[in-house]
Design a protein that fits this description.
This protein has helices at residues 15-29, 36-43, 47-50, 57-71, 81-98, 114-128, 133-156, 162-173, 182-192, 202-219. It is mostly helical.
Amino acid sequence: MSTTEDSPKRERLTAERVLAGALALADEIGIDDLTIRRLADALDVKPMTIYHHVANKEAIIDGMVDLVFAEIELPDPGLDWRTAIRHRCASARGVLAGHRWAAPYMESRTNPGPATLTHHDAVLGCLRRALSIEMTAHAYALLDAYVYGFALQEATLPATGGEEMAELAGAMAEQFPADCYPHLAEFTAEHVLQPGYDFTSEFDFGLDLLLDGLERAAAHA
């Protein structure tokens, strides 16, 4: 009696698999190049099959954003509000560094998913433990503008530190005469080109400035 090897079973397609595949593909190629056809190829299915699980590309993006929010650390209710929010902001920046396409989409969706809603509710709850409703609104707007803005800048910089940054800064510095642009020349030579420079370290400095300012404002509110 002859035997044949069993053919490998294809993993069943689900909405969760579609969204996870879309997230991975966007991380690889960017969201602008994410199409249903390319997603179908990555999942080894026919394009029309995807529509059985997710309505359209906009719904896919909604789901992808919700997956990104699910990765961000929620504020710890056992910590004081400043420490909890600081950890949350640092987590958000780290998550967005892994999903470089995501920052412009985090607050632009009109169909937020459960992780998105849970995240916002937890952050608001943490801020309200110490701040008035008005100060909470100020704090949330400022903090997210800073986190998303930094993440966007970090994602679009050609380099942020190390030898790559030193080479880039050095090559750029050669293109402008120091006598015409003395402050650029000084900043490049005496700061950017110094050992250990890393643009990403600016995040902590700026975040602490914001939190210091919010604490002072709340104390005088």
